[in-house]
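User: Fold this; tokens only.

Assistant: Input:
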Amino acid sequence: MPLILMLIAGVITCIITYVRGYSVLAKLTALLVVLLIFWFLGSVLKWTLDYFDMQNEEKRKEEEEDTREGTESAQEDQEAGEDGPEEV
């Protein structure tokens, strides 16, 4: 994610600086600054998405455990009802 964002920003910067007729030094300076900024922004975005994904994975695991526990207790109740004395 950071790489793609950075490269797209770099291409756009190269086109804009070429069209406006910047000197080579100004083009390279602008490109370096833009690449660093967008690499940082892409890294922050990736970290944020990974954090939310980790939280969703934890919730999914908890829900699976709750479902398993509910299924196991229902099976135990059913088995206890079959083995228990019959009421008349």
